[in-house]
């Protein structure tokens, strides 16, 4: 697709207003679009899901002119415009292989769109990111990372990234969670959102789904229940529970409250990360990263 002619310099333009509005969940649902901010996230979206991107907004600044030359009109202005970095310039070039419109914008327009863009924002199709459980094929011994009532966008993006890095087969946001396509979630996932399916379910749907795929549900909890205390993760692994055959769904609780007793009663097992110092526990993102990577490393060692 050709780059749209001219540089957009009006932050109040209708097109820019609508992109800016995508910070609101209500507007995302209304317009059927969401924003991908920053070079890293945009790079991964272009590499893995280019079909979902409709528009690319690139912040530009005026380029240099040869001595004695003078820019004439809009065309000359556009030709001399340069993205803020070679990384963004490369992404703009990569986007031309796909059906993506590129819009050059000034700094004040980009500030209206996003304050965290680092010079580039993509607008993508929201519906294309919706994932149904039946559309996620899980192989033998699959690992699912599930998060109950995760509310902080930064945490949500970070745990998606951790699950991706650990080789999980899917991520599930359970019950009343932050919107997966919140700009901060997308940005903090650093592109992992485009590598791994992310589903959303109610608690009841999650429990029914895990039963239907014959998965063992393992809660990450410091204490567990009275009479059913949480087993230290190393002990759980040493017992051979991760047999590489039965799928596992590791369920993490809310950042502040953890998992309620009503859910702990429904899981197959609770495990905890041993504390070797004086801290009582770890925050959600750290716990998820440690647990999921420990499980992944133990599985890979066994295969070797």
UniProtKB/TrEMBL annotation:
tRNA/rRNA methyltransferase SpoU type domain ranges (all copies): 146-293
Highest taxon of source: Bacteria
Record-linked SUPFAM superfamilies: alpha/beta knot, L30e-like
Gene Ontology BP term (one): RNA processing
Sequence ranges assigned to domain MRM3-like substrate binding in this UniProt record: 15-62
Family statement drawn from the similarity comment of this UniProt entry: Belongs to the class IV-like SAM-binding methyltransferase superfamily. RNA methyltransferase TrmH family.
Protein name from the UniProt record: TrmH family RNA methyltransferase
Record organism: Bifidobacterium psychraerophilum
Taxon lineage: Bacteria, Bacillati, Actinomycetota, Actinomycetes, Bifidobacteriales
């Amino acid at each position: 697709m050709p780059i749209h002619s001219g540089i957009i310099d009006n932050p109040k333009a209708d097109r820019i207003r609508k992109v800016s509005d995508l910070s609101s969940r209500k507007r995302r649902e209304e317009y059927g679009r969401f924003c991908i901010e920053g070079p890293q996230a945009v790079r991964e979206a272009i590499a893995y899901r280019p079909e979902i991107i409709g528009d690319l907004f690139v912040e530009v600044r005026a380029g240099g002119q040869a001595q004695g030359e003078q820019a004439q009109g809009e065309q000359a202005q556009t030709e001399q415009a340069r993205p803020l970095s070679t990384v963004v310039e490369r992404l703009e070039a990569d986007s031309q292989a796909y059906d993506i419109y590129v819009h050059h914008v000034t700094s004040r327009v980009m500030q209206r769109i996003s304050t965290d863009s680092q010079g580039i924002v993509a607008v993508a199709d929201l519906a294309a990111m919706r994932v149904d459980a039946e559309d996620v094929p899980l192989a033998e011994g699959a690992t699912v990372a599930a998060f109950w009532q995760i509310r902080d966008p930064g945490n949500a993006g970070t745990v998606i990234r951790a699950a991706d890095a650990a080789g999980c087969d899917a991520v599930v946001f359970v019950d009343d969670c932050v919107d997966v396509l919140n700009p901060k979630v997308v940005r903090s996932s650093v592109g992992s959102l485009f590598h791994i399916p992310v589903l959303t379910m109610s608690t009841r749907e999650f429990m029914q789904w895990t039963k239907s795929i014959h998965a063992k549900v393992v809660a990450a909890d410091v204490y567990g229940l009275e009479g059913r205390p949480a087993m230290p993760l190393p002990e759980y692994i040493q017992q051979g529970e991760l047999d590489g055959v039965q799928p596992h769904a590791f369920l993490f609780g809310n950042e502040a409250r953890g998992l309620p007793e009503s859910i702990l009663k429904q899981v197959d097992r609770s495990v905890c990360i041993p504390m070797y110092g004086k801290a009582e526990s770890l925050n959600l993102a750290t716990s998820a990263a440690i647990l999921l990577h420990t499980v992944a490393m133990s599985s890979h060692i066994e295969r070797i």
